[in-house]
């Protein structure tokens, strides 16, 4: 290599080092918070079952028919008389329950929403799950928005982008460090700084693919509200172009009649969510049925079906845009909840390794800084000492 | 000490591990049952590699003179 080229490579590497140092330093505190709060969140389903905060359906004969959705809605309105229903959720593994999310208006930010769980067969209320207090709720809010709503989400998304920059620049810097070392070397016999450096490089490079995927999907998840709003606008626009009225008021329409039409048209799908008109997942004038398929992938990629509440007719909506698909795929790939308990355990292990990588990065920066200061002081002493 | 390695040599094992990780992430997403098991096996690879190198066991095997 010529001398000029060697120098320019050196400057380039210095830039990458600067980028790696500062992109990671800025986001590290937040990433440590995300990794630590993420650990219990990976197991939130198991923790809720263990602490018995989960409402379960009473045992009834398997053949018990399901109650009309109109009665379910009536029960919900009776349970929270001051609120209106926004969504009905049906968990894949709890088909006998409806969880109804309610708020003062359909178009709030849903931060003060209340819930009621209703037996899907008897339409009796089973209780109100509280997602807004306790340890897991604090973990959730710290992880999702730092108790700061959309601004907090977008801020964490920005920190996630910095993490991606730190990961990519870290991979670039890996090359000069490893030119003379075998893969995975940890030089235990050397000074502590070298041991930290080798551990940082080894753990970082081995887990980088996972960190990139979880980081990038986490960033996409911070845009969930914006993506859903854009999707809703696109649907409303498509409906207006097709002359279907997307803003007609709805009152006294039968939800069960709409559900019958949907399930008859899509016999191999199941209802995942029903969104009332005016909510984030619907248009101002339609019920939206989010249908899940029966394969692992299509059960994540829910498909919206819009129904006119007055005529109970299915409206041909625009196909799901790419950014909505990206969001739907980002959710499992970020949560690690799509491969039973062993996958969650591995997710937690990789998360713990990431904590070590972040922490060793801080230690390395701190030790380097201290060493530089000490060298400065020594130089000053030499300069000031009488010759 | 080994000689100066090329970029390709430096990235050979990281690339293999990245591919193993990505296949592990995707397999549980695309299927159930055996695909879940495949995903656990593949994602256990980077975790195990970290454990082996961090514990120093690899050192003794490749450098028995130490």
Structure characteristics:
heterodimer; A: 387 residues; alpha+beta; 8-stranded antiparallel sheet; 56% helix; 11% strand; B: 66 residues; mainly alpha; 3 helices; 79% helix; flat
Describe what you observe in this structure.
The complex is a heterodimer of chains A (387) and B (66). With 387 residues, chain A is of the alpha+beta class. Chain A has a domain at 3-28 and 140-221 and 340-384. Chain A has 11 helices and 8 strands. Chain A has helices at residues 3-42, 44-50, 69-79, 135-144, 149-178, 192-206, 208-222, 224-241, 255-265, 322-335, 340-384, and strands spanning 84-89, 97-103, 114-119, 125-127, 270-275, 287-292, 303-308, 313-315. An 8-stranded antiparallel β-sheet of chain A has the order 4-3-2-1-5-6-7-8. In chain A, strand 1 (84-89) and strand 2 (97-103) form a beta hairpin. In chain A, helix 5 (149-178) runs antiparallel to helix 7 (208-222). By secondary structure, chain B is mainly alpha-helical. Chain B has one domain (14-62). Helices cover 79% and strands 0% of the residues of chain B. Chain B has helices spanning 7-30, 34-55, 57-62. In chain B, helix 1 (7-30) runs antiparallel to helix 2 (34-55). Chain B starts with 6 loop residues before the first helix and ends with a helix. Classes of the chains: A alpha+beta (387), B mainly alpha (66). Chain A binds chain B through residues 171, 174-175, 178-186, 188-189, 199, 202-203, 205-210, 213, 296-297, 300, 329, 332-333, 338-340, 342-343, 346, 349-350, 353, and chain B through 1-5, 7, 10-14, 17-19, 21-22, 25, 28-32, 35-36, 39-40, 43-44, 46-47, 49-50, 52-54, 56, 58-59, 62, 66.
